[in-house]
Amino acid sequence: GNSVTQMEGPVTLSEEAFLTINCTYTATGYPSLFWYVQYPGEGLQLLLKATKADDKGSNKGFEATYRKETTSFHLEKGSVQVSDSAVYFCALSIQGAQKLVFGQGTRLTINP
Amino acid sequence: DAGITQSPRYKITETGRQVTLMCHQTWSHSYMFWYRQDLGHGLRLIYYSAAADITDKGEVPDGYVVSRSKTENFPLTLESATRSQTSVYFCASSEVLGGGETQYFGPGTRLLVL
After folding, report:
1. Which of A42, A45, A89 lies closest to B43 in CB terms?
2. Residue range A78-93, pLDDT digits in tens
3. Are B73 and B24 in contact (CB under 8 A)?
């Protein structure tokens, strides 16, 4: 079946630290990969995505590269800010299917 | 305002009561989805709809009913609420393109079943 495994949280970092949140997947077919972010009290919103192997998604200083050989889509940011505190979800969808399969989410807290 | 809205934002009900959560989108997206979010489980798909009058089960459909008579609305009904249905419910929508479509989420409904 299709599944997403995320690095367990919570993760706590100091401002300006380097961030990595690991995400690996199992999928039949050719998945598209996503990172969604959920700020406190809000719904999820798309942070970045990649639709084929070796694509790099980027947004707001965050990056993730679609690695087919390691079935991974790790989220990175070089220098985090307090405003990046949120829950981050890795997800996949299979081509031709609109449904998303989510990881469990990783809560990130950035201290000033 | 354009976008996807949910109502109510907060709801407290009692076991056995029927509850309907509303979802409305203004983009005319073909697909709509209902998820529940629980600690330790991430988001799990309850039901989804590919178009008006077309619905299908997701991962956790038991105890829920949906309908979609109009493209823009996708209500979720708990026919007889149970405590295990206490959760945060999110509605989402997406277009149909070539693949990798973004889903757009509403702000959520926080439901407490006593």
Report:
1. A89
2. 999 999 999 999 999 8
3. yes
